[in-house]
Amino acid sequence: MIPGKEAIRGLRCLRCGAVTAPTLVVYLCEKCGGNQEVELDLALVRDTWPREELDAEEDQSMWRYAPLLPVESRLDGPPVGMTPLIAAPLLARRFGVGAVLVKDDGRNPSASFKDRASAIALVHAREAGHDLVVAASTGNAAAATAVLAAPAKMKVRIFVPRTAPRAKIAQLLTFGAEVFAVDGTYDQAFELSIAATRRYGWYNRNTGFNPFTREGKKTVSFEICEQLGMRAPDLVVVPVGDGNIISGVWKGFVEFQRLGLIESLPRLLAVQAAGSAAVAAALAGDGVLRPVSGETIADSISVSMPRDGEAALKAVRDSGGYAVTVTDDEILAAIPDLARSSGVFAEPAAAAGLAGLARAHAEGRLGGARVVVMLVTGHGLKDVSAAMRTAGEPRSISPDAAALEQVFGA
Length: 410
Known about the structure:
Layout: E1 8-13, E2 19-20, E3 36-40, H1 42-48, H2 51-56, E4 85-87, H3 89-95, E5 99-104, H4 115-127, E6 132-136, H5 140-149, E7 155-161, H6 166-174, E8 178-182, H7 186-200, E9 203-204, H8 212-217, H9 219-227, E10 235-239, H10 244-258, E11 267-273, H11 278-284, H12 309-319, E12 322-326, H13 328-342, H14 348-362, E13 371-376, H15 384-391, H16 402-408
Helix pairs in contact: 4-5, 5-6, 9-10, 10-12, 11-12, 13-14, 13-15
């Protein structure tokens, strides 16, 4: 096994193709300002990391894929990754496919998928000599950073829109993050964090800005392949906001295929809220990303201009996939639907995947897919108020035994 950092070729711009040496903390392409991705020497990894070594790996976390992660060390603290892939036969029958499998990333330490990205970003920050990390978030990325930074004794400063769910704010404060509630949108909080990074030199963890976050997110695809017996599913359903998750998901499958660990690649189904559908609009139109309102109840995918939109568009196109949009009402209805059909409690953005799968089925776009994996990116307890809007309130009853007859009869 070799440390993944030794396999880094450079940071390749997704827009102009320029390659930057990863010797310093460099976020955007210095030539055109485009987003970058970490480019690994996969031939080197293949020659020094035999399949048998992965099969024998006892670590049941994302760090089992250390040769494919561009850092030298691991992060101490709660284990991230190797979340369950849950069969949902009720959904499979409803949509007429062989299997619907729910990848429940709400089981991660901070109860969201974003722990994967924060784990890599925190290690990269530490190896680059930083002990303070700044980020902008609607809640999940920030919580993931705070939860994992605490046992690592690293400082965290977070900019969140004031409208972020209280449960997510509670997580941040409990784990010791310094939190700034911005009187504005996520996009404005994002810009403020970038300004702070440029002025004070703080390490920035923002998705769609820091290329190392994608490296953590790709590990979910490695896990899916292992959990399916080293096969890729036919279709992967991904809720999309900034676009960084879906581009990371695609990168993971592509790397496993290039290593010869899987034969085929899946199609990607990008699901966006109707008020936050810049990626879907670009795919359906002329391919140009344009700002949208970003208004949706699903705060984790609420964004006006996707920060990793170009990478998301490329991932969907390269996979032969497509995008659908869903309304807030459909998203809310999907929360109890997912819970009652799979046993998984999801926050609105995560439940959007089920709403999107239902929309794709209604439009006849599943295309004969047999194995469908639906990525659930955050636990329902992240936003209880949203769940209560559709689940309703409990019925009141007197503690007197006579009340039983009044409710249920003699």
